[in-house]
């Protein structure tokens, strides 16, 4: 594995694309301005590069399916994707993938351990000045990880977070935005009593004592992302929608 700090000390790699190359690169970034900034840096390095920037995951995936690019660069928080599912179709493939992120929460890195990638770049710590180095490494399938992210990729041991069941994590992501037990019950298709029991169990396992602490924990650990576009629950969006739909369907039949 190469990191930002030691990669620059190596001699030029013969597998690196020359600046005269014309790679086709798909960029998926929810923030259009940031996506355009990434595109500009790519073109400053490879002037002949063809860069396509998308804000929606399905649009980017359609473009990749229509014509496989030389590399896929994506963020971790995409409005129409659940968690990191925009990277899931490429787990078994060999498309070079570079993930650009500012997120350092436990939930994001838990999801990252389940997908394939060729590089993870910390744009907050490294800026975009070194992104071409990360792109070159990813294109050659030589893992690049920003130094600030290396410790986060190690699977945690004996953390209370690991002791939460899948259902408890779903409930945590639902009440983490401040929803009360009744509101969470309606979203999840569960009874008020069941959600209340899960809440008490979660608080006990995490050592939390009131609603405000639950919200802070869920936000800090990445179980809830609150953006101008709405509230997102990475990795749980579709499960929650499915549970809500099932509850509504049952209610109509009754």
Task: Describe the protein.
The protein has helices at 4-7, 32-45, 57-66, 106-112, 123-126, 131-139, 150-153, 166-175, 181-188, 192-206, 211-220, 237-253; strands spanning 2-3, 24-28, 50-54, 71-74, 97-101, 119-122, 144-145, 225-227, 230-232. It starts with a strand and ends with a helix. Helices cover 44% and strands 13% of the residues. The protein contains 12 helices and 9 strands. It has 2 domains: 2-153, Response regulator (Rossmann fold), CATH 3.40.50; 160-245, Winged helix-like DNA-binding domain superfamily/Winged helix DNA-binding domain (Arc Repressor Mutant, subunit A). Residues 4-12 have low confidence and may be disordered. The strands form 2 sheets. A 7-stranded parallel beta sheet has the order 1-7-6-5-4-2-3, sandwiched between helices. It is elongated and about 65 Å long. With 254 residues, the protein is α/β, with parallel strands linked by helices.
User: What's the mean pLDDT score?
Assistant: 85
Instruction: Find the count of extended strands (DSSP E, 2+ residues).
Output: 9
Termini separation comes to 57 Å
| Percentage of β-strand residues | 5-15%
> pLDDT under 50 segments (min length 5)?
4-12
- Which geometry do the CA atoms define? elongated
Architecture (CATH level 2) name of the largest domain: 3-Layer(aba) Sandwich
Strand arrangement, major sheet: 1-7-6-5-4-2-3
Please, how many domains? 2
Structural class: alpha/beta
CATH-assigned homologous superfamily of the largest domain: Response regulator
Q: Count of helices?
A: 12
Quick one: CATH class of the largest domain?
Answer: Alpha Beta
Helix content range: 40-55%
What do we call the CATH topology of the largest domain? Rossmann fold
| Rg calculated over all Cα atoms | 20 Å
**Main beta sheet strand tally, sense and closure:** 7 strands, parallel
| Pattern of helices and strands | EHEHEHEEHEHHEHHHHHEEH
